[in-house]
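dumping this here before i forget
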Amino acid sequence: MKNTKVLSLVVVLVFALSMMLTACGTSEVTPSATATPTATPTPTAATPTPAPVDTTVAKPERIDVTLTGYFGDSLDNTESKKNYMDWMTEQYGINFKIHYPARNNYTEVINLAVAAQDLDGLVGLFTPQENREWMANGLIYPLTDFLADNDTYNTIFPESWKETYTFDGELWGIARGDDGNPSMFTRSIRGDWLAALGLQRPTTVWELYEASYQFTYNDPDGNGIDDTYGMTSRTAWLMQDLFQAFDARLNHVGDAQPIWNPNTNTWEDSMIKPEMVECLELLQKMATENVMDKEAFVHSSSVARGKVQSGYYGGLFYWDSWTQSFESSVKQNFPDAWMDGIYALKGNITVNINQYGIGQGAPYAMTVTTPEPKETVNWYMDIFFGTAAGLFQGKYGIQGDFIGEGMFTLSGNKVYLNYFLKDGVVTGWGSPSIAGGHPDYAVGIVYEVIYNSPDVAWNEATTLRVNSGLQQRKAWFDEALAWGGIYILPESLKEPTSDKYLQISSDISAASQEAISKSMISEVSVADALAKYRQTAKTLGVKEVLDLANAEIGATTTQTY
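structure:
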């Protein structure tokens, strides 16, 4: 079912949109004359035997995949982008077309394109909610029947991945995949600054405030200059641990939406809890004292990361895999610097504070304009998940027959990631990121990853650094799990699933974000900000969302507006 109103609004953009998708994503791509894309050489590669595909379904003429992060952003590694499509086309006899709109407007581009019926094939979305919205609007195919006889899907594809993207008894999305390791955020914090100031690693939200205050005012780097800052963020998304500590919980993407509370087994609205008042009062205090970056609600995630990497900010709440990257960047200017990680801060609650998930990857949905839907989804499934070689081709790129060839080389249970020298610097190809991983082929567990370049010292140092980072994150995870600070958040409890929620979720997000940001920078008082939110939520009908969500799990809420 098509939304004719939406179509009428976008029809004038169809031509421009078509050009945007084409210019950013096929093997005939011509880089913009005004852009300066990052070029890479052609990898030295033999012609390896492609990963076997065991399917009785006819081969499609072409497979279209739309995603972000394909060999970097849209203008990165342009030669790698084209070479990979050409190589896959040659290997499998299927015309591979990868479309890669820029990350900063990716969602807008694909939403306009699918509404205009100008988007074919598998399209990478970010959340189950987006997958469900496209389903509800009749934009995508159910995949259950298409994959009913697919051995890879039936025997290899994890059941939990299927369940996540199954709505109303039908499969509507395919997980991009993951190695199955715990996935979560951590508070990366300057361990060397803590040590210099005689502080222990914070265990509570108030200890974090104290550390951040001293980071700002007590010259933790000892240079005698007032040039350090406590912490930075990007909106509430990158300060989730502060909210969770107060039991004013945010959802899995750091949004103040209706959320399931594991300690009460109810869905609740954190914005109208007394704990939210406490949390926002602390944030306001931190912003007033310049302990919290006041630009948190106006700058991007990349800017927030860059501030930590500069060596002048004390920390950030971000993906745990970044802690080591932050440390490596800071060390370039401050060789003695090091980062610590905090998976959960105690506050009003002391157990089940921060959430984690078992990685499975964001969904691909298949648009209803796809010419050969059954053939497309079966061959995608068998190529990228049927074998380890196929998965690594989707994860790392062009495969070589011998060590050092291609973007990666597979030898037994060892995966060699091949790099080259560019102006004397070890440089990578980027990666297609079409597939994310699979527990049966997990890198670092089932398959050993070895970094391979002409620089032997770099190979050894990088392999050691990456492996030590994995061990460090595991130690932090085990520690937090042992004292009960973290809990697994089931996919089915990440967001409400009612149509009512889908209708108003963006409005809830806007209202809560406004209350948090304006109160933090003292544009309005905490009381006035939350009063305005409460009135908006009452008008929107958030109580109905809570009632429907709680009814699904046999619970009730006492919250009122």
